[in-house]
Amino acid sequence: MKKILLTGSRGQLGCEIRCASARYSDLDIFFTDLDELNITDEGAVRSFFSDLNPDYIVNCAAYTAVDKAEDEPELCFRVNRDAVALLASEACKSNAKMIHISTDYVFDGKNHRPYTEDILPDPQNVYGRSKLDGENLLMQVCPQSMILRTSWLYSSFAANFVKTMMSLGRERDRLNVVFDQIASPTYAADLAEVILHIIDSGKFLPGLYHYANEGVASWYDLACRVQRLVGNTCLVIPIETKDYPTRALRPHYSVLNKEKIKSTYGIRIPHWEDALERCIRLMQEK
To answer: Is 284 within a domain?
Structure first.
């Protein structure tokens, strides 16, 4: 049995890993969130590692309130940078392997081709800078770690853009949605499956990897597809980012190139439209 410490268990990805883990009988996963383990508390982290002695750490915990982060950067950096360094230090001491989840928001969005892992990041907001600092500290403290960058996560669990569009589409006749921000919407269940596959395979190759569903979309494209799949008659109106100002800047283009993870682990990544259909069907069945 491989012992795994998972943080952020009540978030989208943590919940999806819990669901998927039922298919992996050789993995013994300890699901923690803030109530069980405060990852910003050095004493608590050290004590937890001493008691559990995990083989793997999967860090799904993060401060993800992108706009709010602009007003409380200290908390954002404490969770996305300092806590990652704490986990990395204990992982290194106990010879545990760490998988850390990061984001496409480490990029400036000025590219016109999908970002590969060797392109230098240039985050444009507090959230992105905190995540990049977390990546850098992780690799300094515990180089034998894996970073998985992903984009536009959604799930049947927790709050996310897809669930918001489903709800608003039922309540309103029309929605204004940004069309000039482009990335790859990612079903958290698909990312969860890949994480568990990597651990279960025994082929742990440290480094930086990109994972998102195949294909590209704007927030407008995604909103339109959601309305069609659930049968809402709400009219979705495309608008520019400048017409929907937010506290934090977002990258206009943050599509991730996934060739590295596909070739390394021999995985096939589903297209975002197929993944979205699976997710919505599951929510409707519930």
So the answer is: no
